[in-house]
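task queued by scheduler; priority normal; single chain, no ligands, no partner chains; default sampling; output format set to structure tokens
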Amino acid sequence: MEFCETASLAGLFENHIEVLSVFESTQLMRMGNTVGRILPPNASSLGKAITAFQPPEIAEKLVRSYGTHYFTPNTITDEIALREEFAQVRERGFAEDLEESIPGGRCFAAPVLGANGFALGAVSLSMPLIRFKGDAQRQAILTAVQETARAIEKRVIGERSTG
């Protein structure tokens, strides 16, 4: 693991987003995740990355199914602010969790897009804020999660076209 932090893969199901795979950091202080965990569309980088890249009716269904629960003072619970956040995620091509799901946590995610341009899932890297070193590290992490997402897309789309 290039960054020695926790990496996760989540997938979209009918009315929720679920963690499918986790590679835990070996560091004593780390952000953790759990396979099978249902993710909030408003307060996790994985949830935001997947929800932002859905047709409006699917995004609305995901938000309504989970709700916009408050986790920290940074959690986005206002519907207008959340729609704006999803628009920014679509524009940038990645999502961030800026201590929105847990105090002291920082997460970065990129959507895994299907051939139709909608997210099938997302990949993320999560870390304690105390190890976050600023913009250069942020850019390196975002590049890594986006490259990982593109590699997964190539495999998924390739398997569907040959299978």
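post-processing summary
- The longest strand covers residues 119-128.
- The radius of gyration is 15 Å.
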